[in-house]
Amino acid sequence: MFQNFKKVLIVAPHTDDAEFGCGATISRMVEEGLDVYIATFSACEKSVPSQFPSDILITEFKEASKVLGVKSINIFLYGYEVRIFNEKRQQILQDLIELRNNVNPDLVMIPSESDVHQDHNTIFNESIRAFKFSSILGYEMPWNNLSFETSSFVFLNEKHILSKVNALKRYKSQSKRPYANEEFIRSLARTRGVQINTKYAEAFQVIRWILK
Predict the structure, then answer these.
(1) What's the chain's average pLDDT?
(2) Could you name the CATH architecture of 7-208?
(3) DSSP characters for 17-67?
(4) Parallel, antiparallel, or unpaired for β 107-111 and 135-139?
C-alpha cells in the first residue's frame, strides 16, 4: 500500500502524539521497509506529574519509538515549551524547513486541521507551509478533535495494534490520562476498521495528496 513512498516524516507537537495518532500505521510502515522519521517539538516538562523527573518524557519517547521499530537516528526532539508554540511560530517553521531539507520526505503526517490544542494548531499551520509540495495526512486524536474528516484509512492487523499498545505503555508518566489505555486504543481501531470492512484501521484526514 505504501509503494509510492520511501520516506515518511511524522510531525508531533509533543512526545506521545505520534504514537497515539498513528502508532499502528508507523508499525506497519516500518514493517514494509519505509524509512520512518519522527520529529517531536516538546517533551512537556511543565506538564509531567510531580512524582516523575521533569525530563521523563524524553526517555519514554525514545523507548516508544524503539518499540515501533523507528531507528534512533531517525528521531528528532526539539525543546519548545508546552502550550506557547504560537509565540515561537517562525522558529518552528524554520525547524520544519530544515527537517524538509534534511529528510526530504515523500509523505508527512501531522495533527489534523480540526485539532483544537493550541500547540497542535501551530504545528498544523507551519507544517502546511513547510511541506506544501509533499503529500500530507492529518492523524486522529479524538480528545482534541471537535470533528474529524475520515477521508483515508490504513488497514491494520493485530500485531500493528499490539505494537502501538506496547509503545504507549512506555509512557508510564501519562498512564492516568483517560485515553491512555488499551481498551480505548483497540475500540477506536475497531471502529475505524468497521468503517472499511476490516478488523482494525487508523483513519486520517487527507490534507494534500500528490500522485507522481
Answers:
(1) 96
(2) 3-Layer(aba) Sandwich (3.40)
(3) HHHHHHHHHHHHHHHTT-EEEEEE----GGGS-TTS-TTHHHHHHHHHHHH
(4) parallel
| DSSP character at residue 19 | H
Q: Which pLDDT score is estimated for 1?
A: 63
Q: For CA atoms 40, 43, 47, 48, give the dihedral sign.
A: positive
Amino acid at the residue 175: S
pTM of the model: 0.97
Distance CA 198, CA 135 (A): 25
Give residues with Cβ within 8 angstroms of 185, minimum separation 6.
161, 164, 165, 168
pLDDT tier at 18, thresholds 50, 70, 90: very high
| Residue boundaries of the structural domains of the chain | 7-208
Q: Rounded distance, CA 75 to CA 144, Å?
A: 24
First to last CA, the chain: 15
Q: Is the pLDDT of residue 188 over 80?
A: yes
Helix (H) or strand (E) holding 39: strand 35-40
